Amino acid sequence: MKALFFAPVFNQVRELPRVLAEFREAVPPGVELLLVNNGSSDGSEVLVRESGHPFLDLPRNLGVGYGYMRAIDWALERGYEVFGAMAANGKMLPAEIPRLLAPIRGGEADYVNGSRFLAGGSSPNLPEFRRRSIPLVNVFVRLATGARLSDATCGFRAFWLDLLRRAEFDWHAPWLHTYGFEYYLYAKILLDPVIRSVEVPVTMRYPEAGRYSKIRPGRDWYAMLEPWLRARLDGRGFRGA
Fold this sequence. Notes:
Blueprint: E1 3-9, H1 16-26, E2 31-38, H2 44-49, E3 55-58, H3 64-77, E4 82-85, H4 97-105, E5 111-115, H5 128-145, E6 157-160, H6 162-165, H7 180-191, E7 197-201, H8 219-234
Parallel strand pairs: 1-2, 1-4, 2-3, 5-7
Antiparallel strand pairs: 4-6, 5-6
């Protein structure tokens, strides 16, 4: 099974070395890492180019969703079978990638999402705002899709790339360039009665102090919630599902 994990990088010169070291030390053979530099200017763009991993060098940051699209296109062109996503800010543990891949390899799931709230998962230093808001998002997602999730906002995931080949919706649409892409796709997965999705326990670690996210209040919150409703209302899914 040819698997590729994508990590978007935007001004993360302090965190990226740790992520690269952990990936090198913990990830089993056969799993590759694609770095996507989203217009960084703090030196992390140099780390990306000198990492030894394949990379895409985008001249400016058009949004994490745009980076997702470019990475998936790159993977499809090169015959990868499974695509995964993780952060480049050190919140996610590369050592837990096998947890995401196991249900796919075992034929139990087509799409696997991490959850910090399942037994075996954890979220050291989780900010209080996140602790209170994530359950509310879970309720919103249940109303939109009918799915009972424990952690709808976790970005640590893996899935069969063939799902994108069979998509009847436009997953390159410009409105998905920011945070909409990953949630729109996840909503489409959950709304399809044939596609099998599961959550697995993962760790999401946060810094003890300082800024923990590049998500902007208001504008980005809307961009994260809108896709769940649009996925429900537009009615398009996957061929053959």
